[in-house]
Amino acid sequence: MGQVAVSDPREAEVPVRRLIYCSQATHDIAPEELVALLELARASNERAGLRGMLLYCSQSFLQLLEGESAALDATYARITADDRHTNLRLLLDAEVSAPLFPDWTMGFEHVDDEELAEEVEGFTAATDYPLVNPDLITNAGVAQTLLGLYAKNRVR
Q1: Residue 140: which domain range?
Q2: Is residue 130 part of a domain?
Q3: What's the CATH code of the domain at 63?
Q4: Do the beta carbons of residue 28 and residue 66 sit within 8 Å?
Q5: Residue 60 forms part of a structural domain
Q6: pTM of the entire predicted model
Q7: pLDDT digits 0-9 by tens, 93-114
Q8: DSSP result, 57-89
Q9: Domain assignment present for 143
Q10: Please, which residues have CB within 8 angstroms of residue 14's CB and are 6 or more apart in sequence?
Q11: In the prediction, which pLDDT does 121 show?
Q12: Has residue 124 been placed in a domain?
């Protein structure tokens, strides 16, 4: 009998794609609305096999999403069409070797101005829409580092 070819398990892995974007909320989002948004995002991400982290501060969002490419495209299309935010800026769209948040459907942190001032050089409480400000979130590396800092030791 011939030998059965064993494929490399890495070939069966689905590539992980990562998106990071920031945006400005069109209004100050109440805590109840944030909770509802988070619950909806977690359920939607679970169905789509997506993972990620969302920060909200002073009417601005910073979000990292990871997963399969088609699911990310569909989710990002819904995000861009959502009228609760504007001034959307895509910071990163890349394939990565491993997810940053493999166990999270959506991590979340509502950051206050004082806490953000400790984490981001140059931030003051007077900064408008800090997570979408290109002077503070200058590139994807800064965004990813900030998301990682808030994700560390948070409840999943």
Answers
A1: 14-151
A2: yes
A3: 3.30.70.100
A4: no
A5: yes
A6: 0.74
A7: 999 988 888 888 887 776 665 5
A8: ETTEEEEEEEE-HHHHHHHHHHHHH-TTEEEEE
A9: yes
A10: 68
A11: 55
A12: yes
